[in-house]
Design goal:
The chain has one domain. It has no helices and 8 strands. An 8-stranded antiparallel barrel has the order 1-2-8-7-6-5-4-3. Strand 6 and strand 7 form a beta hairpin. It is globular and about 35 Å long.
Length: 103
Amino acid sequence: MMARTQTGGLSGTWAHSYEEDEGGVQVYRPSDTFPFPPSRQGRATLDFSDAGKVVSGMPGPDDRQVRASAGITPLGMNRFRLGDARVIEVLESGPDVLKVRPG
């Protein structure tokens, strides 16, 4: 589930639904409730459970998640810096979808 905190933070745990990506927009769905189709490609995850932090998960060489924690910095205009370099723009958010544009 996506929610905004008083500090403009993000919340919830999301998995990349790459089958739905279109035009440079990445689509994320709730990782614990969305019925993802079977896939040979692992799914990146974004976990905003801790206020002010994000844990990014990427499929590792043995298919297990490799996770890294970083801070979140609101930049304004629905843009957030995740860690030192990665920036996302939140285009749509709701209880069942999170759409972001990287960059």
